[in-house]
Predict the 3D structure of the following.
Amino acid sequence: MTAQQGSVRVRQHDQTVTLQIEGQATMQHSPAVRQFADQCLTGGTTALSVDLRRCTHMDSTFLGTLLFLKRLVERREDGRFTLISPSPRCRQLLQQMALEKILPVVDEEEPAPSVWRELPSGPEDKAAFKRNVVQAHQELGRLKGPAGETFRELADQLAQELAAEKPEQQDKN
């Protein structure tokens, strides 16, 4: 997968997991990122970082996924969630959404080359993918202010559409 489309690489060190985003971070990456983070946290990970220095764009589903991950990590008494060195475009987006006040950011030098592995992306199950999109927008809907209001309305609409799908349609997906 090319960096323009976006890729997610991961590395684990002790109880810390770092996800590195290169290129665009989209709804296609969100289910795999959520599942991987959940597995890591269940396995004892206490710190989750998302390195955004090479990220060129984040869509709303991915932004909602970051909020979900922060909440998931902070459920742990010793949990820490951080964004590392967001690119100028990502910083601008975080500021526009007032997320820089919610998602902790640390600026770090580029780490020495280390062993990363590619995290596969893309939905395996269309119904689960759709639920993930709804949940990500519900996270954004929890924001205070006009952005939260807009995303609440969108999340409600998406949830209604998902609920209206016939179970047999979901099974075919």
Q: What stands out?
A: The helical segments are 30-42, 60-74, 88-96, 126-141, 146-164, 167-172. Residues 83 and 105 are 5 Å apart (CA to CA). The first helix runs from residue 30 to 42.
